[in-house]
Specification:
Elements (H helix, E strand, L loop, with lengths): L11 E8 L2 H9 L7 H25 L4 E4 L1 H6 L1 H9 L3 E4 L12 H9 L1 H9 L5 E2 L10 H7 L4 E2 L9 E2 L5 E2 L8 H5 L14 H17 L3 E6 L1 H4 L2 H17 L3 E3 L2 H10 L3
Parallel strand pairs: 1-2, 1-8, 1-9, 2-3, 4-5, 5-7
Antiparallel strand pairs: 6-7
Helix pairs in contact: 2-11, 9-11
Bound molecules: zinc ion.
The site of zinc ion has 6 residues, from loops.
């Protein structure tokens, strides 16, 4: 069993997390400049224009909590979008600044990814940043120390347990995995190394249901990582919404929470 204790009445937890990568993510760590690639650029721009508003409507209809991890540069480019997410009551977390992967850059660049992003994210969202998800789940050996030094209290980039745990740096880790991420299932981009599959969404729901049920068996945290440019497409969101509805009906003792909710619970129960 996972050692983390959930609030009374709940046996496990489920968290919907959205990584807002957009054009910044594509350029920062995927395919490079989009200046001469209008088709791929439009795919990235679909995210703030179409996908995020659709996802917000779904979350509101279903009264589901969620955390949105945002690169600082995305908040500079699309402040209205990020403000709208925050104003609807959803948590904003740090997701780098230019969405570069810390394990591939110098110490100075890594520090800049935190120091450039935190002020703009806090200004645009009106929220104090307490959580971070490292772009590409690719922290360097120093990343968690640097995040802690800058006041970040939890991270969601490691994969070392079924439920939340404390890292040696003192952060609460809310672990994720590539199995519960939409990019691996549907994130096709027409570039070498980025030709992810175009899987049948209903088969993916079968995969995710197995992990949801397994997580519940052990009292874990089921952390689903979604990218709105992918999961905000109507066909994908339709099956995700159906599946989440079924999970909630069948497992009423799963706590649906934001990452901030989990962090606050951990602190109030000294975990
Ligand atoms: Zn990302």
């Amino acid at each position: 069993m996972a050692s983390f204790q959930w609030p009374d009445g709940y046996h496990s937890a489920a968290l919907l997390t959205f990584d807002i990568d957009g054009v910044v993510g594509f350029e920062g760590s995927a395919v490079g400049s989009l200046a001469n690639r209008p088709s791929v650029r439009s795919l990235a721009e679909y995210e703030p224009a179409i996908a995020i508003p659709r996802i917000l409507r779904w979350l509101e209809e279903e009264q589901l909590p969620a955390t949105f991890f945002v690169p600082g540069r995305m908040a500079e480019l699309y402040p209205e979008t990020i403000r709208a997410i925050a104003e609807q009551g959803y948590e904003i977390g740090h997701h780098g600044h230019f969405h570069v992967k810390p394990d591939r850059v110098s110490d100075d660049e890594e520090r800049a990814e935190i120091e450039l992003a935190l002020p703009v994210l806090e200004r645009v969202s009106g929220q104090k940043m307490i959580g971070s998800r490292v772009p590409g789940w690719a922290p360097s050996a120093k990343t968690l120390s640097l995040l802690a030094e800058h006041g970040i209290l939890y991270d969601s980039s490691l994969m070392g347990d079924d439920g939340p745990y404390r890292t040696p740096e003192g952060l609460l880790e809310i672990p994720c995995t590539w199995w519960m991420d939409d990019w691996e299932q549907w994130g096709y981009l027409p570039f070498a190394g980025w030709e992810y599959p175009m899987n049948d969404p209903r088969q993916v729901m079968s995969l995710w249901t197995a992990h949801f049920e397994g997580s519940h068996d052990v009292g874990g945290a089921f952390v689903l990582t979604l990218h709105p440019w992918i999961s905000g497409r109507p066909g994908f969101l339709r099956v995700i919404a159906e599946t989440v509805k079924a999970w909630r009906r069948l497992y009423p003792d799963v706590w649906w929470a934001s990452c901030r909710d989990v962090y606050n619970h951990a602190v109030s129960t000294k975990q």
